[in-house]
Amino acid sequence: RHSFGSRGGTQDPDATIVKVETPKVMIGVQLVEPDSAIRGHFGLKRGEASMVASVFEGLPASNAGLEPYDIIVGINGKTPVSTDDVREALRDQAAGANVNIDVIKKGQRTR
Predict the structure, then answer these.
(1) What tens digit of pLDDT does each residue of 26-43 get?
(2) pTM for the whole thing?
(3) 47 exposed, middle or buried (CB, 10 Å; 0-12, 13-18, 19+)?
C-alpha cells in the first residue's frame, strides 16, 4: 500500500510514505520511445529521438504547438535525444526558461 498524504484521521501503520519531487520545468508532454517502424522511416536509431504521446492543454508544449506523434530530435542544440535526455535537459533549466526543441512534425523537421 502507498499513502500519498493524509486527510486527517488515523495513519495506516503499514503504509509507505512516498515523497514526489515536482520538476522545476514542465513543458506538458508525455514522451515515449518511437517504435522501430517510425525510427526506420526517419533513419533514427533507438535512443536518438522521443515521440510525443500526449500534450497537456494550457502548458508550454501545447502553447508552442506540439502535438501527439511529433518526434523530438533535439533540445537546446543537443542531438540526438532520448526521452531521458529530454527530461535531463528540462531538469537543468530554471523555471520560466525558454527551451529550443527540434521536432519532426508531419514528416518535416521544424524548430
Answers:
(1) 789 999 999 999 999 999
(2) 0.74
(3) middle
pLDDT cut 90: percent of the chain above it: 48
Count of other CB atoms within 10 angstroms of residue 66: 19
Contacts 24+ apart (CB under 8 A), 67-72: 67/105, 70/103, 70/104, 70/105, 71/34, 71/38, 71/42, 71/44, 71/103, 71/104, 71/105, 72/31, 72/101, 72/102, 72/103
Match 501503520 to its residue by C-alpha cell.
13
Residue 11's Cβ-side half-sphere holds a number of Cα atoms within 13 Å equal to 10
45 is written with which cell numbers?
536509431
Which region among 12-26, 72-86, 97-111 has the lowest average model confidence (pLDDT)?
Answer: 12-26
Q: Rounded CA gap, 17 and 3, in Å? A: 5
Rounded Cα distance, 64 and 106, in Å = 15
Q: Is the peptide bond before 80 cis (omega within 30 degrees of 0)?
A: yes
